[in-house]
Design goal:
Pfam families: DksA_N (PF21157), zf-dskA_traR (PF01258). Keywords: Metal-binding, Zinc, Zinc-finger. It comes from Geotalea uraniireducens. The chain is mainly alpha-helical and about 140 residues long. Helix 1 packs antiparallel against helix 2. The N and C termini lie far apart (about 70 Å).
Length: about 140
C-alpha cells in the first residue's frame, strides 16, 4: 500500500508541475497579447480578445486543478487518501490512476452530479419564470 501511495504522490507532483507550466505559459501569452497598441481590424481585435478570455478560463481551470492536487497530496499526508468523502468506502485504484485527485467514488460522484444538474435546472426554471412574470407586469 505504501508503494501505491508513493506512486500516486509522484503522479500528483508531475500533474502539479505540468499545471504550473500551463499557467505560466498562459500568463506569458496573455501578457504578450495585451502589450502595445491594438493592431489589425476590428475582427483581429475581437479574435485577440476571445483568445485572451479563453486563456483566462483555461487558467482558472488549471488553478482549480492545482488546488485539487494540493488537497490530494494533503490527504495522502493525513492518511485519508483514496477514501470517498461521501460514503467513506475505498476509492478503487483504477479510478485514482485515471483521476489521482478524486475525492469521491464513481457512484457518489455520479449521484452528486445528478443532484447538481437537477439544482441547476430548478434554478434556471425559477429564473425563467421570474423573467416571464416580470414581462407581464410591464404590459
Amino acid at each position: 500500500m505504501v508503494e501505491k501511495l508513493e506512486e500516486m504522490k509522484a503522479i500528483l507532483r508531475k500533474m502539479k508541475e505540468d499545471a504550473l507550466k500551463e499557467i505560466n505559459k498562459a500568463v506569458k501569452n496573455g501578457s504578450e497579447a495585451t502589450t502595445g497598441e491594438p493592431t489589425g481590424d476590428i475582427y483581429d481585435q475581437a479574435s485577440s480578445e476571445r483568445d485572451r478570455e479563453l486563456g483566462l478560463i483555461l487558467n482558472d481551470r488549471e488553478r482549480d486543478k492545482l488546488r485539487q492536487i494540493d488537497e490530494a497530496l494533503l490527504r495522502i499526508d493525513e492518511g485519508e487518501y483514496g477514501i470517498c468523502e461521501e460514503c467513506e468506502e475505498e476509492i478503487p485504484l483504477g479510478r485514482l490512476k485515471v483521476m489521482p485527485f478524486a475525492r469521491y467514488c464513481v457512484r457518489c460522484q455520479s449521484d452528486m452530479e445528478k443532484l447538481q444538474a437537477q439544482t441547476k435546472r430548478f434554478e434556471e426554471d425559477r429564473a425563467y419564470r421570474e423573467i416571464s412574470f416580470g414581462d407581464e407586469d410591464e404590459g
